[in-house]
Fold:
Amino acid sequence: MPSNRQTTVAFVVLILSAFAGGGSAVLTAYEVIESYDFPVGILPKGVTHYDLDASSGKFNAYLGGSCSFSLEGSYQLRYKSRISGYIYKDKLTDLSGVSVKVLFLWLNIVEVRRKGDKLEFSVGIASAEFGIDNFFVCPQCGCGLNCNTLDDDDDDDGKRGNLRSNPLVSSF
Structure:
């Protein structure tokens, strides 16, 4: 069940969305993710629109098409054109539309939790943790974080985000 703060944040997002036609600013999917204490880099660049049900936390984020890329050569990620699940402060649950290649298998990422300065990604029976600083930059479809363009890939201190390998895998 969402807390009062989460419900308030979602309500504000819906109100802003309702007034979008009247010239009011609308939060992007990336700003909404940040309002739930997640870094923008858990979504790739290119989210065209989203919807969010304030009462339940149910969300959908839409890309222009499916998207895949490698990070640091060791992780391959794939996003479908629609990513859905439930969002709460520090927790994404019942995710669909995001998968990671582990050895020769594609596994669905079903949950993401923020634990202080780490993000824990779960594929159901196993999980892996990564430092949150790996997700300050949005990866780009096709090339991840190793794109030749430098447009918005640099963060404020001029560093590019890198997902450092951390094969810390644990069973539930």
Q: What stands out?
A: The beta strands are 47-52, 58-63, 67-71, 75-88, 91-102, 105-108, 111-115, 118-122, 126-131, 169-171. Confidence is low (pLDDT under 50) at residues 11-23, 150-172. The radius of gyration is 16 Å.
